[in-house]
Amino acid sequence: VVAAKTWRAQRALMIQMKEHMFSKAYMCLVHGRMQNKIQFVKKKFAELGSSEATQVMLEHDEMHDPFYNQSVQGKWKNRSTRWAETFVKPIAYYRHKKTDEEYTLAYVNILTGITHQIRITMQSLGHPLVSDDRYLPRQQALEDLKWCPRNFLCEVRSDWWDLTGQHKDEKRRRFTRVSLENPLPVLFRGILETKLDLVEKLDQTAEFNV
């Protein structure tokens, strides 16, 4: 949670969020072994469902979206379709102690901000999030929930411009970049340590606890 102490700071943060200048990075645990490379993923997604509890996002193409043709032909004019831009970097491979299934811990940076962006992007790459009860097959989600009781996704870093900082020099106020890092929740750290075996750490500089 980021709280502003003045209305000027609040306004500055709101504008940065709206214009996607407020950067967020996440860690997530996904099914399977991702290729060890940094990927830039740009895909278009469409909403399906009006209720927040049941709404899902689909890849907006003929293969994945059953209403694709209606949308492009203008028969569903009010339907929301948006581009999502995402950087994905695998940082460690894991194996489940009991099932021997493979998993990847990934660092994700989003350049846009659409509903379920990380969840749908990772699913579209063939690596859905662990315990994602909305985008995993039902049986797989139930199996995941036995050892990971919530969606394995956590914001670990936020960056923004400090436009109303305490510096007397206006130039420094305008160009100071603020970064805030968060550790993985105790729950997730415990899962990595007790439920999984670390197979390979791909980024030796990565710190999972900070």
TrEMBL record:
Origin superkingdom: Eukaryota
Please name the InterPro entries in this protein's record: PsdUridine_synth_cat_dom_sf, PsdUridine_synth_RsuA/RluA, RluA_PseudoU_synthase
> GO biological process annotations for this chain's record?
enzyme-directed rRNA pseudouridine synthesis
Q: Name one GO molecular function term.
A: RNA binding
- The chain positions of domain Pseudouridine synthase RsuA/RluA-like read 1-124
Concerning PANTHER family, the annotation shows:
MITOCHONDRIAL RNA PSEUDOURIDINE SYNTHASE, RNA PSEUDOURIDYLATE SYNTHASE DOMAIN-CONTAINING PROTEIN 1
Family membership, please give it.
Belongs to the pseudouridine synthase RluA family.
Name assigned to this protein: Pseudouridine synthase RsuA/RluA-like domain-containing protein
